[in-house]
Structure formats: structure tokens, C-alpha cells
């Protein structure tokens, strides 16, 4: 098995921050090179339960997931919905399809926070994954119509994204341009570019 601490990608992708963020945040990044090692059903349920402990408007918990392990027919069906830029995702151990239930359960009215809360749940899932040395990668690059038809998704749901999950492997496993992306350092806007005291800058 690969000793992941030796991987070039780990060092390249670590968040270099001005302020001292938690290690799980520092070490989460959107990987593409995944090991053969499967993710067990118990581990997958741990990740999904972590997602469920996310906050949501009125505790509606609008998140719904479809999951498939590599080798299962549904995995191939999910993979076939992805666009070319995500063709690296066939190496994932698990693919998730993340959906948002659009309406409030009690009133049937639109839940205007649904997508917000699903995004929060997805990030919670990925932080739990980071704590277990499992890497995840959200993907908005997919064929929406094909996804809706393939998975018989009714109008009650909005498709949020796919998520690839797996244990990390070496960047050399990937073809270009994915190999280079796997070792390209991450960057972020500084806090003072998006957070302002009391009012927006003029
Ligand atoms: C909703 C969403 C959709 C994304 N879609 C894709 C995608 O289709 N393909 C891809 O390679 N990365 C995708 N990403 C990953 C982003 O490119 C990545 O999160 C961003 O570049 C920051 O990098 P980091 O997650 O490694 O910090 C997506 C991320 C999110 C949150």
C-alpha cells in the first residue's frame, strides 16, 4: 500500500493559511487520484451520518444521496453522467449523487434554503472524510438531463452535484491534465477580500 504521507500531492495541496485553521480544513482538498482500496459500507455510513449532523433551515435536512461502490452497475451509470473533464473519477471507490429536496415537508412550499443546506452537508461529509484519510471531490460537471433520466429524479428534487470518494493514490496514476492539477498548489482570496466590517466597500 502507498504511504500517503510520501505523496507529492499531500505536500503540494496543504492549505497555507494566514490564520491557524483546523488540520481537517488544512488537509481537505479535491483529489483525483484514488487507490484501489475500497470504502466499506460502515465507513460510508459514517460519512453520510456526519453529513446529516449538518445544520439546516428549520432542521428540514433536505439532503438526499444516491451512492454506488466501484464495480457496481450504478457506479458506471453515475460515471456515464459525468462530463469529459471528470473522466478521472472512474478511479473513485464510491460515487455519490447529491440531491436537494426542494419543498418543505410540512407545508409543501419551496424551501429556499435547500441548496444551501445540501452544500453544507456535503462539506461536513468531506471534513469527516478528511479526518478518516478519505478524499472527496465534488463535481458540477455532469449532464443534468441524462442524470435526471438515468436516476428517475422527480421534480421534487434538485440535483446538486456528484461526489467522488476514495483513499489517495499517487498523482502519476493520472493522465494529463489531471496529473498536473493533482500537484498544483491551492490558493484562496485573503480574508480581507471577502469579509468586511459592517458594510460593503464603496
Ligand atoms: C459544486 C462544486 C462543483 C465542482 N465541480 C467540479 C468539477 O466538475 N470538476 C472538478 O474537477 N472539480 C470540481 N469542483 C472542485 C473545485 O474545482 C475545487 O473545490 C476548487 O478548485 C478548490 O479546490 P480544493 O477543493 O482542492 O480546495 C467543484 C466543486 C464544487 C463545490
Task: Supply the key terms.
NADH Oxidase, four-stranded antiparallel sheet, globular, alpha+beta, 16% strand, binds flavin mononucleotide, 202 residues
Briefly say what this structure is:
With 202 residues, the protein is α+β, with helices and mostly antiparallel strands. It has helices at residues 8-13, 23-27, 41-52, 73-81, 114-131, 144-150, 178-182; strands at 63-69, 94-101, 134-139, 157-167. Helix 3 (41-52) crosses helix 5.
Number of domains: 1
Mean pLDDT: 96
Rg calc: 18 Å
Architecture, according to CATH? 3-Layer(aba) Sandwich
Molecules bound to protein: flavin mononucleotide
CATH fold call:
NADH Oxidase
Give me the secondary-structure topology.
Layout: H1 8-13, H2 23-27, H3 41-52, E1 63-69, H4 73-81, E2 94-101, H5 114-131, E3 134-139, H6 144-150, E4 157-167, H7 178-182
Helix pairs in contact: 3-5
Residues 29-30, 85-86, 138-141, 161, 186 line the site of flavin mononucleotide.
Note down, in words, how this protein is organized:
There is one protein chain. By secondary structure, the chain is of the alpha+beta class. It has a single domain (4-189), classed as NADH Oxidase (3-Layer(aba) Sandwich). The protein has seven helices and four strands; from the N terminus they run αααβαβαβαβα. The protein has helices at residues 8-13, 23-27, 41-52, 73-81, 114-131, 144-150, 178-182, and strands at 63-69, 94-101, 134-139, 157-167. Strands 1-2-4-3 form a four-stranded antiparallel β-sheet, sandwiched between helices. Flavin mononucleotide (FMN) binds next to strand 3.
Amino acid at each position: 500500500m502507498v504511504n500517503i504521507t510520501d505523496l507529492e500531492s499531500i505536500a503540494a495541496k496543504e492549505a497555507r493559511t494566514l490564520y491557524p485553521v483546523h488540520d481537517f480544513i488544512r488537509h481537505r482538498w479535491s483529489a483525483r487520484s484514488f487507490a484501489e482500496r475500497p470504502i466499506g459500507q460502515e465507513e460510508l455510513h459514517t460519512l453520510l451520518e456526519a453529513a446529516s449532523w449538518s445544520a439546516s433551515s428549520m432542521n428540514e435536512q433536505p439532503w438526499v444521496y444516491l451512492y454506488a461502490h466501484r464495480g457496481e452497475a450504478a457506479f458506471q451509470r453515475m460515471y456515464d453522467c459525468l462530463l469529459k473533464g471528470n473522466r478521472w473519477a472512474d478511479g473513485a471507490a464510491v460515487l455519490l449523487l447529491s440531491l436537494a429536496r426542494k419543498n418543505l415537508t410540512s407545508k409543501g412550499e419551496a424551501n429556499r434554503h435547500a441548496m444551501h443546506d445540501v452544500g453544507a452537508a456535503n462539506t461536513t461529509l468531506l471534513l469527516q472524510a478528511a479526518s478518516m484519510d478519505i478524499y472527496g471531490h465534488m463535481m458540477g460537471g455532469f449532464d443534468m438531463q441524462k442524470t435526471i433520466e438515468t436516476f428517475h429524479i422527480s421534480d421534487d428534487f434538485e440535483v446538486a452535484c456528484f461526489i467522488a470518494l476514495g483513499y489517495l493514490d499517487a498523482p502519476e496514476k493520472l493522465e494529463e491534465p489531471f496529473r498536473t492539477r493533482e500537484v498544483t498548489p491551492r490558493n484562496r482570496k485573503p480574508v480581507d477580500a471577502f469579509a468586511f466590517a459592517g458594510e460593503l466597500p464603496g
